[in-house]
What we know:
Elements: E1 7-9, E2 19-26, E3 32-40, E4 45-51, E5 57-63, E6 68-76, E7 86-94, H1 103-106, E8 109-111, E9 117-118, E10 122-130, E11 133-134, H2 138-142, H3 144-150, E12 157-159, H4 161-164, H5 175-180, E13 183-184, H6 187-190, E14 214-232, E15 242-259
Parallel strand pairs: 2-9, 7-12, 10-15
Antiparallel strand pairs: 1-8, 2-3, 3-4, 4-5, 5-6, 6-7, 11-12, 11-13, 14-15
Amino acid sequence: MQLHTSFIFLYTLFQPINLQLLINVKNQGGDVMQENITANVSEDTVILDFLRLDGVYVSQLVDFTNEVEAMKVVIPAEEELGQSGFQTLCFLTHAAQADFIAPDAMAKLRQKNPGTVRVAEEDKGWRQTTATAWAGRAVRLLSPAAARHCAPARDHIYLRTADLSRWAPRPGMSQLSYSAEVTPFPANALSADTSDGKPGVGPCVAENDTSKECICHIEVCVNWYPCGLKYCKGKPQGGMSYRCGIKTCHRCYRYHYYVLRRDVCLTYT
């Protein structure tokens, strides 16, 4: 039987090994990009990374044990805008409903035709996240894997404080341990209510003064990823269904976050 998207599952009596796949993917504009997917069974994590055509590097980690998703984005400077170097950002979100397949199942995938250019079956649309705090040392408590993943971002690691109550405390910790380690954004960056006379913070795209605070945003699209397992029914006399392939998806993310100065927002246009 030819299995869906030219992948097959190998079921053996041995423990699954870690996996690394290099996938040729067609984006929505018709361009072909390469994605690298790594499943780490011992850490219970999956990392998907790729280099966009505009030079932005994207690396998405899902920590299944701790229910943390960490999206790392490395943005190169635009010299014509007077920028230099590059900027690394990392966004943490709760991932209890992450639609990646788990690392143990991912590690059993084998690619039959490595040169094939792949297109996702299903478009998951947009997922919008508005960060409300700098993560600080909380990332180390939430997920050691995410802490290593986001380390290059340093003080540019963001999360939603509302997610803190959704993460189960690790052994020996209380829920308050997380909150004590984050730094909330200023109140005027979190509310549109200006009745107290303090001006709200507007989007960077509408701010002309490079020294003014504003709300920056960045958009990331993951064009192809394994988002679920497929099952086939056994023969009438065989009984139970069995895994026979994977479902693939496309999803875009839009992250909003506060910056002290507009010139810190490299993606305000």
